[in-house]
Amino acid sequence: MRTGDEKELKLFYQEYFPLFVSFANRLLSSGEESKDLVHDVFASYWSARHDFHDLISIRAFFYRSIRNKCLNALRHEKIKSAYLAEALRRAGSDEHVFETILKREAFHVIHAEIRKLTEMERRVLLLSLEGKSNDEIAAELGIALATVKSHKARSYAELREKLKYLRLLLLLLSR
């Protein structure tokens, strides 16, 4: 097999595949997962076949690789289970569901009001929300610094006025 004789690999596969799958099944609960894992090890072996000198080292490679892959699969499954349990716990709590709905609705209302601003006010506001300074906004839009300040002040004042009910509503609902 070391030379790349595919017939030898096929014979080895036919003889040892059921044994290796049986070994993997002792560690994993899914027969299909065990088969897939053993196929992966065969592919790994084929790429590294030149490193092995006898059947004992080949079999040792398979057992060690299958064991390690099974342990990795079990660790991954444990992490997935913990993540799923946490997601179900959070999604199941009324508080979390309520909070998520509230945030989505507030986000929608705020962005709807931002879309109602004039084009320049909206552009200045969005650049400001990206963290850009007044000087950077002025340079990017090709307008005076005073114009940027004026647009920001008008935008914030208009949004404060239109969204004041939202702040009160959020305050009342968060209790």
Describe, in short, the structure shown:
The chain has about 180 residues and is an all-alpha fold. The chain has 2 domains: about 5-90, Rna Polymerase Sigma Factor, Chain: A, CATH 1.10.1740.10; about 95-175, Arc Repressor Mutant, subunit A.
How would you describe this protein?
With 175 residues, this protein is mostly helical. The protein has 2 domains: 6-90, Orthogonal Bundle (Rna Polymerase Sigma Factor, Chain: A); 93-173, Winged helix-like DNA-binding domain superfamily/Winged helix DNA-binding domain (Arc Repressor Mutant, subunit A, Orthogonal Bundle). It has 7 helices and no strands. The protein has helices at residues 6-27, 31-48, 55-92, 94-115, 119-129, 134-141, 145-173. It is elongated. The model has no long low-confidence stretch (mean pLDDT 86).
Uncertain stretches of 5 or more adjacent residues: none
CATH domain class name of the largest domain:
Mainly Alpha
CATH topology name of the largest domain: Rna Polymerase Sigma Factor, Chain: A
Task: Provide mean pLDDT, rounded.
Answer: 86
> Using only CA atoms, what is the Rg?
31 Å
**Tally of DSSP helical segments:** 7
Give a quick account of the main beta sheet: strands, pairing sense, barrel closure: none
Task: Considering the chains and any ligands shown, give keywords for the structure.
Arc Repressor Mutant, subunit A, Rna Polymerase Sigma Factor, Chain: A, 0% strand
SSE topology sketch:
Layout: H1 6-27, H2 31-48, H3 55-92, H4 94-115, H5 119-129, H6 134-141, H7 145-173
Helix pairs in contact: 1-2, 1-3, 2-3, 4-7, 5-7, 6-7
